[in-house]
Amino acid sequence: MTAHSRTGRTQPPHLPRSLTAVHFLPGDFAGARLENLEPAQYPKGVFFVKKPGRAARLTSGELAAGFLFTELLFSADVVFPKGGTLEAQAQVKTAGRWSPWFSFGRFTPGAGGRSVKSQENAFGKMDVDMLKLKKKASACRYRINILSAKGPAPVIKLAALVLSDPSAPYSAQQAAPACVRGGPLKLAVPRYSQMAQRVSAAGDICSPVSLAMVLTYLGRKTGPLGAVPKVRDAAGDIYGNWFFNTAHAGALGFYSFLARLNSLEEARSLVAAGIPVIASVTFGPGELRHSPIPRTRGHLLVIKGFDGRGNVIVNDPAAPGPGTVERVYDRAQFAAAWLKNKYGTCYIVARGLNSLLAVQAPVTDLFSRPPKTAGERGKIIESQLLQNERVELLEIRGRWARVKALEQASLKPGSKALVPYEGWLQAAALAFSLPLPPSAVVCSKKPGGISLGVKLCQPCGAALPARHLGPLPLKLKQSALRKKILSAARLFLGDKYCWGGRSAWGVDCSGLVNLCYRACGLDLPRNAHDQFAAARGLKKAALKPADLIFTTDSKYPDLMGHVMLYAGGGRLLEATQDSGTVREISFAKKFGTPFAAIKDGATHNGRRIFFGTLLP
Q1: Of 27, 57, 224, 395, which is most buried, counting CB atoms within 10 Å of its CB?
Q2: Which CATH entry fits the domain spanning 474-616: 2.170.130.30, 3.40.630.30, 3.10.20.90, 3.90.1720.10?
């Protein structure tokens, strides 16, 4: 999501040239029409063929793009235990009218496929594996057709769409930022040379050879020529059909899909997650130094790392032999060859996508177990997760998903270690998302329906006025930071106390502390006791505004049951069940004792008081 300024002139949002949507969770297929298909138990897949030997079909609901596009790519993963055929189709909506269905071809696992020629009409043209439109479209639908033999049921694991607007401007600074994040990084991907293979098509098999390198890296040992016959497009006698290459890896049980990335940061996020990127590049003479070939209209290679300067480490199968396959390409030149010239087109192949998820809803509740009734939600709520907050999926049970909340820490039972909070949330609240480092955080309460504390990746962020955003990382002097934390907390004054709340729509005591620190770029543990465990103890004399005050639980004296923010001048800010509100109050009124008389560890009204800080 992207910010714009309202100071005099408005800056239009810098929308990405491409959007990749990956559907692999049950909620991703809401509104789909199923024929001879039944829901599967994740992680085996999303749907299985109910009666193998008969035709099966999945037709998606209407998918609004959010921007106008003129190119569409598609990929689908279907596992066939006893063989079969996969066909994928798509149609687009232009000016309120739906196009006929365009076919991406028919694929047979182990035997390659055949693309469908002569597909052109008033809406567009199928160019082998890419739908190119004559007019911009606003929505699309896809269809997966399955034919299989009798026996074990085929399973649909994934469907993925890429929508692109090639007319959108390319920004070299956004594609390859001069400020490089992270240190050197390299995956141990085996090195294969297509040119060293003694076959007549050696110059044409960069795609299956790159795919073979990645499959072997992922544990599916595949020789340099192992994937070649299995991805061949018989209609054109080619080996680089993108749909067939990804379908082959998907048929082996991997999560495999086409994507178009918009920056080297996106590629780095995948490599950091242990996922190599098979990238398609185009360049002319002198445009990619150290390449084994002088020019190409289309070539695939494997991105497997980055050096300390952010240059791209690849396995380039066009090298004359395995010993020279590993190359390092200048980041700006590589970005132009891949992100500018080929719109970031790539294959992503992974064992799982459980860690590539984030919350897509404005806010979602996290429970200790799936609630059986609406009435018990308040009793078992643990926390809330904000939009874009990252999770790791552990299991799915019906409409509910058990996750690790990767941006909320809690004490591991029986240990002093802080680990991600675990709980259950609605699976439909999750969506595929790359683990990109955020560049901004919402620092107003809920502008445009987006909560305070939501982190954004710019330029692909919300079109919010710049005054509602704080840059990340936030660089402020200590005094200014403390004031900013308290200012964020005061946005909630007068709001009702909300047990388990951690969003602009309601907070509890630790949720208030967590959220106002998060709005200043600081991630704290979730609960009061966890925050106390992470804090550095203070004497009262050292207490400064925005430091924390803890009180023990009245029933469990070893447990911190409440946390407050010190507001300065003997006052505190808190979300409390005492008043049922968020309030600012003096120590004397809260505890019945003046601030000057309170001592660290002293007992007041049956609770001990402690002071701590999570600031340097």
Answers
A1: 224
A2: 3.90.1720.10
